[in-house]
Give the backbone structure.
Amino acid sequence: VQLQASGGGLVQPGDSLRLSCAASISGFRAYTVGWFRQTPGKEREFVAAMSGHSSAIRYADSVKGRFAISRDNSKNTVTLQMNSLKPEDTAVYYCAAGRTVIVSSMTRDQAYTYWGQGTQVTVSS
């Protein structure tokens, strides 16, 4: 199993960025997928998640209304569209997947089994 995150970069406040995560997982559509982020010296923080079969979606309050998670099960990919970016969104973003993540645990990183390598997002003027 492999998750490959991409799409990070340096943008200005107010800009948009789209992160993608390609998963080599059999039965991908049944997996809950999530995005987390981490800055140096801080714990990994939940950003967004979508359950298997897209039945439930969760967002961190800090990104609600600005970020959107989506998935394409035919391509085994999950996307995080980030709009109206702020300097506090600067972090390394990780995609994650888990087969047995229950809805109440979607925001907890311990619930996910597989992790991508991370992609850096920097928001700065």
